[in-house]
Design a protein that fits this description.
The protein is mainly beta. The chain has one domain. The protein has one helix and ten strands, in the order αββββββββββ. It has an eight-stranded antiparallel beta barrel with strand order 1-3-4-5-6-7-8-10. A hairpin with a 5-residue loop joins strand 9 and strand 10. The longest helix has 22 residues. The protein is globular and about 70 Å long.
Amino acid sequence: MRFVVIIASLGAALALASTAVAETPAAPAAKTISVDTTIIGTGCGITGTTCGGNCCLLFWNFGGRTKIPNVPASLRFTGSYTEGGVPLSDPAMRIRALTLTFVAGNGDQLVLDENATWLATDPVPPPTWTVDQALSTGRYAGYTGSGGYSVVMDCASFDSGGNCTSEQFTIPLNGSLTLR
């Protein structure tokens, strides 16, 4: 009799355990968002932004507000872009860097960046961005993704002498973001 009670108890425990495992919800499927948008910002002469360079490297800082379709929230953004070369290195190298930091109203941030270097004698690689997971936070912390971009700079404002006092940065972004 004791043996039958033990077997029945084990059977009931196994039945409960298998039910509990079966009821555990599966992890949500990854959601991929297509990115095909253009962001526009201003910099170089606008408070808080600087631009400059030397013989070999030029840099620009800019910012603005945007909405990336299918990404929650209207976002403010800051960006930095650097291009040029290191001609005195052996062999001579070219450099291109982009960082775009999108910040939601609650402080969550999505960071896209590129840090490309190549031999000056090689063809210029296409500009590409990836999600910087180490710097993305809050609701954007789980995002991965990559894509392409270009940077177009035009004068946004002139002083009375016709000199450019700030730049407008137009950056078309394409690619995809995946939330896991």
